[in-house]
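User: Hey, quick favor. My workstation is busy. Could you predict this chain's structure for me?
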Amino acid sequence: METIPRTARDRSAHGSVWSDLQGVAFTQGYVAVEGIRTRYLRAGTPGRPALIFLHGTGGHAEAYCRNLAAHALHFDTFSIDMLGHGYTDKPDYDYTVPLYVRHVAGFMDAMGLPRASLSGESLGGWVASHFAVTHRDRTEQLVLNTAGGDRIDPVALEKVRQSTLAAVDEANWDKVKARLQWLMFDGTDVHDDLVASRLRIYRDPAMRTGIRRIVSMHVPEARQRFALTPAQWGSITAPTLVLWTSHDPTAKVEVGRALADMIPGARFVVMQDCGHWPQFEDAATFNRVHLDFLLGRG
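Assistant: No problem, here it is.
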């Protein structure tokens, strides 16, 4: 296990999504994936190895606004609004892991990407791990960032479920901010622009139905049904980084270590003083560790 200290944060800076993206040559686009209008952010050079970032439950592409610039130097980099999330369409059925996987594969088809590295946080990690099992020939490398899926804690699941529903059903500043602060070790990492960006998404009337389709996975029965078996974890052939944090609110470090132990050759790294969003909370450290792995450095 490698433990990485947190990079000092400039507390004088006024954070915003736009300031994170200023100077970054990126595009926002939409593509049809089996009839589902799918939003993405893209940075980097087409033709380079592809990298797709996958956010967590109730999230959206801006979860990776602090990571696009660094990764665009080396990859054709995408951050997508997953099925039913963000500004992607919200079809009227429960969003199960196989449907998320199908949507990612369809996105790759639509963008002409035969293979890609996948980096998923929380729900995105659950989806990415299933993708790596079912689409081995299309998975270049795999990063599981405080990944969800196999652990079944009914109390924790219900807490996430209810706080997520409340953030959409009431859709006010305080509820959305509290939901975002739950993701962070230090709640002051949540800046106003991040709250405003998510609040706008959550006030979309379609989210009232969509969020219930999303949290259908936040019950023990769904976790059991779509959990990877030890044999499936052991079948992952893509080089894998399991990235955990010292203060993840969903699972202790030991859970991440046990997950890494099931994947042949997986590297296990723990980022200090971060919660469930290390790619945002400590982007400098995340980008360095993430790129060192993807580029085979160190």
